[in-house]
Structure formats: C-alpha cells, structure tokens
Amino acid sequence: MGALLVSGLLVLTAVLGLAQQAEQSAAAGARPPAAPQHPPILTTASESGFETIVKPFLAKNCVTCHGKEKHKRELNFESFTSVATLVDDRDRWDEVVLKLRHREMPPDDEPQPPEHQRQAVAGWLARELARIDRLTPPDPGHVTARRLNRAEYNNTIRDLLGVDERPADDFPQDDSGYGFDNIGDVLSLSPALMEKYMSAADRIARLAIFGSPVLPPTLTKLRSDGRRTGDARTFPAEYDRTGLSVSNAFHAVHRVPVEGEYVVRVVLGGVRPAGSEPITVTLWMDDREMASLVHDPERAARFDEDRQDFGGQSAEFRVRLPSGEHRLAVAIPRIYEGLPARYGGPSPSRRQEPPRKQFTPPADASPERIAQLRKRFDETEAELQKIPLNGVRVSSVEIGGPYAQATGRSRQSTEKIYTCGHRNGEHQRWCVSRIMTDLARRAFRRPIAASEIEKYVALVHQAQQDEQSFDEGLAVGIQALLVSPDFLYRIERNRQAAQSLYVQKITQHELATRLSYFLWASMPDETLRRAADAGTLREPRVLTAQVRRMLRDPKARALAEQFGGQWLQFRALESITRNRERFPDFEDYLRLSMRKETELFIAHVIREDRSILDFIDAKYSFVNERLARHYGIAGVSGPEFRRVDLTGTPRGGVLTQASVLTVSSYATRTSPVLRGKWILENLLNAPPPVPPPDVPNLDEAAVGTSASLREQLEAHRKDPTCASCHRKMDPLGFGLENFDAVGAWRTTDGKFPIDATGYLPDGDEFDGPEGLRGVLRHQPNAFARCLTSKLLTYALGRGLERYDSRTVKQIASRLPARNYRFSALVLEIVNSLPFQSRRPSRVANSTELRGTP
C-alpha cells in the first residue's frame, strides 16, 4: 500500500505540527499577566477596610510565621501592602478566609485572637471578595486542543466504524491532571504514541472494510486465584475461615480476538461419597448464565470403597462469543451448602458421609514407626473432619477457539461506511466522495468543505490506479482519516477577530462534541448532529431533551466508568495489592466485584435520575454472591449482580462500598488519615495541603498489638506541625474504622476494640459509619459544591480556576429546588458559561475580558 504509507507520512507531519501548536497555545493561555489593569472595583471603602480591619489583624496574629523573616508555605503577609492584592493574589485570600473560619490559623500552639476579631476579618474578606467577583467580567476559561484519551478513542472508533476492538488498550497510559485523564493540557503526543496511532489506523481500517482475518483455533488455560479453584490442600483452612463453605467456583477474565464459537472445558477434581447424586456444572459469561451440564458421578473412578475420585473428569460447553473481553465464571451450585453431616447440619449430598476411618498400622512396622504413622493419621483426620467429604471442585478451565468464526465485514461496519450501498464492482466515482464526506463529517465532528475531502478521495483513487480494489482503496482513505489531527484532537477554532477581547460562544457542532464527550466519552450520534446542523441545539428545550435522552442511553455508562472511576478513585483497584496473610479473601474476583458494584451504583443514579445525595447515604446497592458473602448479606447466589436493600446494615452510599474502603487503605492495615483525606477531597472539596517533609512514620509493628491505631495517631497529632491537617482528616477516617483494609466489617483492631467516634471540621460529632453519613447528609450544599466542581472539571477537560468558583456556587445553589437530581446538575453544567463559551485566544486572564459581545 504505497499510497497508504505516503498518506501516513503526510498526516504525521500535520499531527506533530498541531501538537506543537497546541502546546504553544496552552503556554500562551497560562502566561502570567504583565502589569494587571484593575477595573474600578476597588473603592475607597475597600481600601479603608483593608487598612483598618485586615492589616492590623495580620500584623498581630500572622506575620510571625508568615512575614519577611519567616514565611512558612512561601506566604509573606507583609508583602500584601494594599487592597489590590485581593485581586492579584485572590487564591491566597480565599485560603485565608477558610483557615480563619475553620479556626485552623493561628495554630493551636500560638496565641489566639478574640473570636469576634477572627469573624470580623473573615466576614469582611468574604464580602469584599464576593463583591469583586460580581463586578469582574465572567471568564469561561482557556481551552486547549484536546487529544482523545484512550477511552474516548476506543468509543469513537466503535461509533464511527462499528469496530469494537478497543485498539487504544495497547496505547501508553494517559497522563492525568486535576484527578482526570481527559485534561487537555496534559494529553501530550509522543513519537511512541504516534507510531501506535499509525499501526492502529491500518488495523482498524482493514477490520472495518474486510472484517477479522480467519484465525486458527488455539487452546488457552485460564488463570485464576489458587484458592478460588479449590486447591485440596487449602480446603481445611478455607472451611475454618469461612465457617460455612469451601470455594467451588472459578473466575477469570478472558479476551477473545474475534467473534466465533469457543469451547470451554471445565476440569474437575476432588472426591464424593460413593453413590451420590449427579452434580451440575454451570457456566456464566458476563454475569449471564450460558449453560448447565449434569455430570454423572458414576463416571468417576473409585477413590476407595466409600468415595469416588473426580480427578481429571471434565465438562465441555460450546458457546458463541463476540470479540472482546469477557468475565467467565464456572460453578458447581449447591454442593457445599450447609455444615458437614458430622456437625449435625444438612448434608451436601442426599447420602450420609461415610464414618470416620480407623487407623490400621502395617503389620511389620516398629513401635516408633506405628506411633509416627498414628500421629500423622490423627492430624489428617482432624483436618478432614472440618469439611464435607463432598469435595468436588473446579480444578481448571481451558478455552479453545475460535470455531465457526464470523468472517467478512460486520453489518454494523457496512451500515456506517457504505452510505451509498455496497455492490462489488459497481461503485461510481461519486460514491467515493459521498462515503469519505460522510465519514469525515462524523470523524471530525463538524461540517466538511468539499476542498477538505479532495485529498482523501484522491488517496482512494490513487490506490485503485495502483491496481487495488475499491475496498482496499477505501481502507487507505479511512486510515488517513484516523491519523488526521481533526480526528485525534477536539479542536475549537477561533472565529472572532484576532484582537477580540470578548467571550466567544462555541459553535453548535462544538457544543454537540463537548456534550457527547462529557456524557458518552464518544463522538456525537446522528440525532445530536442533526440538531447541530439545524442550529437548534442551543435552544433550551432542545438541549434539555438531548441531555435527558443521552443520560438514558446505554452509552452513558461511560460517565459512570470514566468520571466515577476517577472521582471515587476505584479505577486504582487494578493495581491495589494486599498482604495475603492478613487479607486472604482479597483475590481478583473480589476485586472485580468491588469495582462493578460501584460502577452499577453510579450508573443507576444516572439512569434513574436519583438524587446526588444517594452517593452519601443510599440504603441500597448492587452485589453478587461473592460480594454479598464479603459483606455478610444473606440470600444472594450466583455471579450476577442484583439490587439489595441495605436497611439494617451499617452500609450505605459510596463511603461504605468495598472499592472506596480498599483504595483508601494500606496493604497491611486501614488508614484513618487516607480515608479522612479521601472524604475531604472527594465529598467536601476541602483537600488538605501537601504534608511537610520528614513526617515521622507510625510504628507499624505496634499497630493493634501494643497500641491501637487510633492511640498512635492521637500521639502523632500532638506534634503542632502535624496537628493542623490531621485534626481535619483523622476524625473523619475514624468513622470508618469498623471496616478493614478490604472493606469487611470488624469490631476490633488487633486486640483493641474499635472506637469509631469522630467529628467534622465544623465540630459536628458522630459515632460510626451511620453517624458519619448522617452529618454529611446534613450538609448537602457542601457535597453539592464538591460534586459540581468535580463534574465541571471533567466536563470542561481542564482544571478549575478561581474565576470558576462563581459558576460552581451558582450551580450548587440551584440544586435544592430540583431535589438534587443528577440530571439537574448535568443540565446546569451544560447551560453554564464555561461549557458553552471560551476565552478568546489572545486574552491571558479575566481582567482583560470585555464580557460577551
């Protein structure tokens, strides 16, 4: 494909040029203003109040630590000589107000000002800053050209060409900023990534046009946690730990390369009493029961006169699977339910287990040898008495295929590409132009001029002149589209005069693109494009209808996975490790179940338009059997997830979900510090400052033995350097101490009883997780502002600046009247100034803006 190589080199040059331009644009947008010109908003009263109220207070209470001689945290109040600093150093003054109101400054070991003075200074500053905000022109912020991140690339390829291969999974990890990986300023383009783009474009274009190549069948032995396969050596320990049952299921995640039939072979092991009834082996795929097989125990070999050996026996399933990643589970239902018959409970088999065997020594053994053998026999039997003898288990699972592979182009790809129909050998020249125009319009997410299409059409015709088929030529054109800057980047062009100082409304198609990547992490669909084409998308009625439609669409699952996974940080579960001796139950299937619970919970809030306060204390969640057992919830069987009522349990909202509790703990223990910090950052939007260097570590060996974790942390807080931050974080984290480092309930920390009392920064006290949720629920506006900030950051693809606080406050203040519905929050964001507008490229900061034209 000579034409393909040429097109690739051409667009490579274009992309690298765009990347450089984007970086320069970002740098220009972030450049410090030279000699800021203050609008007439600082009055004589402002100057007088600053001189008589603020400066004397700072001189008496603050400059000892934050002055010329000593400026902790690089803060020198003696340099703030005039009221103009309220504009120049606005972020600092916002922090001062918070520190004063929360009584964090001056620190406890310093003399404290009278409370009326503290409140007078904080109140004057807050009122003056609010007045300045009202008089400052609204600023929608600077937006860089944003490269598609990995999730957006995969989803866009799926919706553009009908190819669901997830090619970006092989790309380098995206950088994150402000907590999210869709932030334009950190999404750089490296040479290594460009090579990946070129390779992926070639593969995707051929998959879309010709379908998957025919692959020879292969056999893969799936890996699963050793305990989950029911290793016979671990049975007694397993039964001892659970007191109820032994693992009898196998769980794994497996990716199949193409659609086709696959054979799943389940290898069994273990023994059962002779004459037991048949067993059922069930296969689940993606939480859906695919098939069950009855296996006759009479096929098993005799282990001895009383037991049958299932070692090497197998059951086979033939299933058809689409390409992609699948969650597989194989289980033997109802075989280990109840206690062993010897303990007086129900027998897992209808037949009674055989009586305990008697020790029979070898006839020629010496007395010493007989004593040794008897001891070993007694120890073995003592262990075996703890578990049922119905020990059939899933030993291993193999998957082979593909067989009966789907060949040729998929129906979805045909419909998305061949807009002028598809008849081999009968395509006219105009058809190429129509196909490429339609693809480019969707790929670039905007109207396309005929002159822009000519180069792509020329590539297709050049390939045909090189004696390639129509389809092969089309693949060349598609590859060129996929490495175009207009596809790889979300570009918003400046349409005003170069010297304009006015806020710019983005176009209808740019609005559609912002909306679709916000809610779907993908390109606009045809319905959204038609509204943009008609110029009606910005109309309130139309925009509201589109948002509600999109939130109900299955593609909104991306919002739960991408936004939710980064806001609540449960995407980190993939790399979390735990000490296996302390937390033997933490294995891959439990890890997957933890993540899916939170994803399903967020998706439910979105789809059902629940109150955002459900994130705080909803008394429902979604669990499967594995997670239910972890939580101690009865009546849940099977790997499929279902909604459960949490009334009467200590759980509720996201705070007590195992995903959150696990990512906010250490490998060996819980951390009230990490959990308190997590609450401050993700529920209250009040992150603590970066800790000072050389902070002493806790004595890990003493935790739970010579002192409780709480006692150690209380001693740690006696250090004045640590106290100011830890007195905010630790009490919040203590409220979750009844949950261990993998989210299981507990009542002791080592040998010490749990003390789960605590308080919020404003002094509200609570006891335990329910009390913590209660005090958070009683401050709904704080959580509303926090979630608004997080969701607005994700929606805009940039970090929030000081001037965005006005938008955040406005949005959060309107939510109570609409019962805090999730759709209300989304609609407020979508209708906000920063979402529908952009700062002109030549304007570096808010003071240069002249409002809207």
Could you give a quick summary of the protein structure above?
The protein is of the alpha+beta class.
How many angstroms separate the termini?
51 Å
What fraction strand? 5-15%
Give the biggest beta sheet. Answer: 4 strands, antiparallel
Rounded radius of gyration (Å):
32 Å
Residue ranges: pLDDT <50 for 5 or more in a row? 1-7, 9-17, 19-38, 226-247, 336-354
Summing up helix and strand content along with how strands pair, one would put the structural category as alpha+beta
Give the overall shape: flat
How would you classify the quaternary structure?
single chain
- Largest beta sheet: strand ordering: 2-12-4-10
Number of strands: 21
For the residues shown, what is the average pLDDT? Answer: 83
| H/I helix tally | 30
Task: Kindly state the percentage of residues in helix.
Answer: 40-55%
